[in-house]
Design a protein that fits this description.
It is built from 14 helices and 15 strands. The chain is of the alpha/beta class. It folds into 2 domains: 12-40 and 292-393, Aspartate Aminotransferase, domain 1 (Alpha-Beta Complex); 51-287, Aspartate Aminotransferase, domain 2, CATH 3.40.640.10. A 7-stranded mixed sheet has the order 2-10-9-8-7-3-4, sandwiched between helices. It has a 4-stranded antiparallel sheet with strand order 11-12-15-14. Strand 3, helix 7 and strand 4 form a beta-alpha-beta unit. The protein binds 4'-deoxy-4'-aminopyridoxal-5'-phosphate. 4'-deoxy-4'-aminopyridoxal-5'-phosphate is lined by residues 40, 104-106, 130, 174, 179, 207, 209, 238, 240, 245, 250.
């Protein structure tokens, strides 16, 4: 009789990824009666569905054989040219050849991990940092080391010290309206970080999906705009927060050698990003004023931020702290000592309100009282109701 051997095991990297208990609780927030500050979702009623539909219609009617066909890995030439022109127009000279279109900026992170990281390499991250970036670096076998910082972001001197002691391959940053804290790195710190990178030879990855959602204040320069470290700085962008995340369109702007490696990695991952979606996005940008659409979105988000920030004092325990971000989607809350945001989530969901506990975002020791609140998906009136429910929980 034939003997049966065991099923071969999963790769070690696949089993090391933690199953998150928070995920299970948040699954309960899909009920329509829940007012959720949890998901980082753009407001669906602000999608320009009519404009996007017209763009898809146009490319499918005019060029079906092309937009339904396989295409090149680097991305739709018209779309790359349009993205490059937008950067150039905003003071960051960019050519279409400096860009590869990615399937969301999340894929950009994966491509960078493939192109840059050997198992055991060290990656410096903000603490807290974007959760799915931490996962991506860990999947690549990297050692993730948190950098100390404050309400303005990482401390460049701490980065300089860690660069000397840990010899990292790259520093990952979300400089504008960071996920999860909503904070923005000031220009002085950006130039200091560029100097560290130039002196010590470390890649700077600036992940910027939120930068165009600015409600007030002055835009800060891209790290990529400083010539001293231009040969080691990568910029990730995305249409997810400015058009629609369901289109899964992002891009990566990188020096030529790294860009070539990312294109090869992308070819192995998915050949190319969906042809029809890229063509529709390019058509949308040609036929519409994205700036006018963004003005509408940021105006709505500003009033939602005001509703959230204005109501927090009455909803949270005394001595809680929070910030007032100048843009983006998130407010970061610190409950006073003794409060555990992960434990309280269950009670919150029972009251039909939700947030994301901050703990999973930390690469170092977590602050149990931290939590992230997204203000984008509900109207000011719903936000006020959600805060009343939270007040009952706390
Ligand atoms: N980076 C950051 C900091 C994010 O917050 C997100 C989305 N939440 C992404 C990357 C991925 O976005 P996408 O793949 O939709 O472009």
């Amino acid at each position: 009789m034939m003997t049966r051997a065991d099923v071969p095991p999963l790769a070690a990297r696949a089993v090391q990824v933690d199953a998150s208990p928070v995920r299970e609780i948040l699954a309960l927030t899909a009920r329509p009666e829940v007012i959720s500050f949890a998901g980082g979702l753009p407001a669906p009623e602000l999608f320009d569905a009519a404009g996007l539909r017209a763009a898809y219609d146009a490319v499918l009617a005019e060029r079906p054989a092309q937009v339904l066909q396989y295409s090149v890995t680097e991305g739709d030439p018209d779309l790359r040219a349009a993205i490059a022109a937008r950067y150039t127009g905003r003071g960051l000279p960019t050519a279409a050849a400096d860009l590869v279109v990615t399937t969301g900026s999340q894929q950009g992170l994966g491509l960078l991990a493939t192109a840059l990281l050997e198992p055991g390499d060290t990656v410096l991250v903000e603490d807290p940092s974007y959760l799915a970036a931490l996962q991506c670096f860990k999947f690549a076998g990297a050692r993730v080391v948190p950098v100390p910082g404050d309400e303005h972001g990482v401390d460049p001197e701490a980065v300089a010290e860690l660069v000397r002691t840990e010899r990292p391959k790259l520093l990952y940053l979300v400089p504008n309206f960071q996920n999860p804290t909503g904070r923005t790195l000031p220009a002085e710190r950006r130039s200091a970080l560029v100097e560290v990178a130039a002196q010590h030879g470390v890649w700077l990855v600036e992940d910027d999906p939120y930068g165009e959602l600015r409600f007030e204040g002055e835009p800060q320069p891209w790290l990529s705009s400083y010539p001293e470290a231009a040969d080691r700085t990568v910029l990730l962008g995305s249409f997810s927060k400015v058009l629609a995340p369901g289109m899964r369109l992002g891009w990566l702007r990188a020096p030529a050698g790294l860009l070539r490696a990312c294109v090869v990695a992308k070819q192995a991952a998915d050949l190319h990003t969906a042809t029809v979606d890229q063509a529709a996005a390019a058509r949308y940008l040609a036929d519409n004023d994205l700036g006018a659409h963004l003005a509408k979105v940021t105006e709505a988000y500003r009033s939602r931020r005001d509703a959230l920030v204005g109501g927090l004092a009455a909803a949270l325990p005394a001595e809680s702290r929070w910030n007032n971000p100048e843009g983006g989607m998130f407010v970061w809350v610190r409950l006073p000592a003794g409060y555990d945001a992960s434990e309280l989530l269950r009670a919150a969901v029972a009251q039909d309100v939700a947030y994301v506990p901050g703990a999973p975002f930390f690469a170092g020791p977590a602050d149990p009282g931290a939590l992230r609140m997204a203000f984008t998906t509900h109207t000011p009136a719903e936000i006020a109701e959600g805060l009343d429910r939270l007040a009952r929980v706390f």
